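Let's practice the habit of predicting before peeking. Look at the sequence and jot down your guess about where helices and strands might fall. Then scroll down.
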Amino acid sequence: MGHVRDLPSKGMGVDLKTFQPGLRSLESRSKVIGELKKTRQGKRQNLLATDLDREGGAIAWHLKEALGISG
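Done guessing? Here is the structure:
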């Protein structure tokens, strides 16, 4: 599926006071994110399986954030 979030196309993309990135969910992935949110409702655990590279780990982290998964 690939990436689900990115920096905004306009502006700096980073809060210059806190240095936090201003990541936004990609509009093209909103349907997938919505379906995943629905699927995980009522579940105690979530497993995000990734490729063995850093990009897969980054995508899993973005999914965790977009889905509101803690931990």
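How did you do? The helical segments are 30-40, 54-67.
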